[in-house]
């Protein structure tokens, strides 16, 4: 009896597309982090800005950076997985 492995169920092209999408999402998250930090810097010069806003924006930027790292790690793991069958 021949069974199909889970890896065979997903075409290599689909994996490569998914890896590309994960890396694109990671790039987007890095961009969001930069935007949040730029906004925090702008608010630093605004006396009407709430004190908590800069800290909150910096925390959100850090979360975006962490998410980007995790997305790249997932993309790297998928790449290794896709090459394991070669």
What are the SSEs and their pairings?
Layout: H1 12-44, H2 51-84
Describe the model.
This protein has 86 residues and is an all-alpha fold. It contains two helices and no strands. The protein has helices spanning 12-44, 51-84. Helix 1 runs antiparallel to helix 2 (51-84). The radius of gyration is 20 Å and the shape is rod-shaped.
Characteristics of this structure?
86 residues
Share of β-strand residues: under 5%
> Taking all residues together, what is the mean pLDDT?
89
Largest beta-sheet details: none
Can you count the helices?
Answer: 2
What's the total count of β strands? 0
Give the ordered list of helices and strands.
Answer: HH
Percentage of residues assigned to helices:
over 70%
| Spatial extent as radius of gyration | 20 Å
Give the N-terminus to C-terminus distance in angstroms: 23 Å
Coarse structural class:
mainly alpha
Shape: rod-shaped
Given as residue ranges, the uncertain stretches (5+ residues, pLDDT < 50) are none
